Amino acid sequence: MSKISLGAKTLAAPTPAWLVGTYDATNRPNLATIAWGGVCCSDPPAVAISLRKSRHSYDAITARKAFTINVPSEQFVREADYVGIVSGRDTDKFAATRLTPVGSTLVDAPYVAEFPLVLECRLIHTIEIGIHTQFIGEIVDVKAAEEILNAEGLPDGELVRPIVYDPGTRNYFGLGKILGKGFVIGKELRTESGGTSGQE
């Protein structure tokens, strides 16, 4: 398949549509929608998110050394977008979206009661990259609604129904159909090629 060069752009798609929960300097709970984020370590379990210094949440994370990752289901796509287009400096985003803040007892940050999946994070590293700063948070707990858990007690993507974001088109998407089971579907090729087990 031939390729066309598009230049150096942030077009890795899709990205998550996560809402980051913090307390600002006045102790008001706030939310910021981010797309630059993902899991970055297994042990300790950690996620990385990137924010510009101009964002209201930047100072909150720096001061409180904590944040939450709130994973909205598809029904909250309007709220997720709204949170990303207004500033917490002059807007109470929880009030405007009618979402409910819940104070974490583990980290100095709030989370969203209505969202099915929440990660409570303690800031462990701050990395200056360029116009964005990367905050790495150790996950100290995951909170999940019972109705999104599978038989093994783990969050199921079909039940969470998370939102993903395409930076190129600026469109939000839901998850599509299941294509195969991880660490299973690829075994067919391993058998055919005679490859060994393990991960890169």
From TrEMBL:
One molecular function GO term is: FMN binding
Q: Which residues form the Flavin reductase like domain?
A: 11-165
Q: Transmembrane stretches, by residue range? A: none
| Needed cofactors | FMN
Which keywords does UniProt give here? Flavoprotein
Family, according to the entry, reads as follows:
Belongs to the flavoredoxin family.
Q: What is this protein called?
A: Flavin reductase domain protein, FMN-binding protein
Q: What is the lineage of its organism?
A: Bacteria, Pseudomonadati, Thermodesulfobacteriota, Desulfuromonadia, Geobacterales
